Automatic annotation (TrEMBL):
Domain of life: Bacteria
Domain Carboxymuconolactone decarboxylase-like as annotated: residue spans: 24-95
Gene3D superfamilies named in the record: AhpD-like
Name under which the protein is recorded: Carboxymuconolactone decarboxylase family protein
InterPro entries attached to this UniProt entry: AhpD-like (IPR029032), AhpD_core (IPR004675), CMD-like (IPR003779)
Organism, as annotated: Streptomyces thinghirensis
NCBIfam families: ahpD_dom (TIGR00778)
Pfam families: CMD
């Protein structure tokens, strides 16, 4: 077994504050705290960020997201009747922005999201997806464990 490289837990206070402010503003502007948590959890699942999953699952429960939705979030596309059309559009956009499989967000995914969110809320949803992806990369890149207070 090879030894694991020690990674930094350091994060510049200015970076933390700026990214935290972006996350908070995006969540506030989206205007749906439960949906915001579903989006952040789904991105964190895709990015394998245990720290963010741990944090956002706890927040989601406090925001009233049901266990059934949390249990089936990884398979939301197949979980008919569990997520409404608006949630499904937000989750599809989350996956498209997070993974960028085709190198861009497909028009049909964006257009479906635009049918469920006005321009301001859609802008905040995109900002929230961008913010959580940044947080995921900061935490995964440094291997910050779930529940850590040193990050």
């Amino acid at each position: 077994m090879t030894a694991r490289t020690t990674r930094t837990t350091r994060l510049d206070d200015g970076v933390r504050s700026a990214l935290g402010a972006l996350s908070a503003a995006a969540k506030r502007g989206l205007g749906d705290p439960a949906l915001a948590e579903l989006v952040q959890i789904r991105a964190s699942q895709l990015n394998h960020c245990a720290f963010c999953l741990d944090m956002h699952l706890g927040i989601a429960r406090k925001e009233g997201v049901g266990e059934r939705q949390l249990d089936l979030l990884a398979a939301w596309e197949e979980a008919e009747g569990v997520f409404d059309a608006r949630e499904r559009a937000a989750l599809a956009l989350t996956e498209a922005v997070t993974v960028l499989t085709e190198g861009f967000v497909p028009d049909e995914v964006y257009e479906e999201a635009a049918r469920h969110f006005d321009a301001d809320r859609l802008a905040h949803l995109l900002a929230l997806i961008t913010a959580i992806n940044s947080w995921n990369r900061l935490m995964v890149g440094r291997r910050i464990p779930p529940g850590s207070t040193q990050w």
